[in-house]
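#lab-general

N.A. 3:47 PM
ok so I finally got the sequence cleaned up, no stray characters, all 172 residues accounted for. can someone with queue access submit it? mine expired

B.Y. 3:52 PM
send it over

N.A. 3:53 PM
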Amino acid sequence: DAAIQFARIAGFSPIVTTASSQHTESLKSLGATHVFDRDADVQTLQSVFPAPVALVFDAISVEATQLLAFDVLTTPSPVLGGRVILLLPQVNSFKDKNSGNKIAVDDVYGSSEAFKDLSVPFWQKIGQWIEGGKLVPNRVQLVEGGLGGIPEALDLSRKGVSGVKLVVRPQE
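B.Y. 4:20 PM
back already:
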């Protein structure tokens, strides 16, 4: 959700994402211009771009999404300046496909201390963005019971809770 909103705030367009269909309207309200089923193929994803895709932000970063990101950036041929941003380390199959560095790969590491030139203005603005509705925080579902609620939260997660962040208050 945050990546879509930051892309919108930064002026990117189109903003394309994949998700289950139940989240389409919510994601569009946050700034996604196109929401495709998470099983969409490369050609479907590329179809909404007026030019070859040059940047992919992979917020999931598991093997399947890394490989899809690679294919979006390299089908039918690698895009000059193509770049993928991952939240998790590259999986081996992705590294193998990208041997020869066909695309650039960046790992995201958020550190306010390490990146003060970016973080100070960000932290000065984020409160205003939330108050003004420009940035919408994630929806949360509180799981009662303090630490004792963790098994229930894990069970909800295993059952595929979606569209909310599960919150446990350990001090309860």
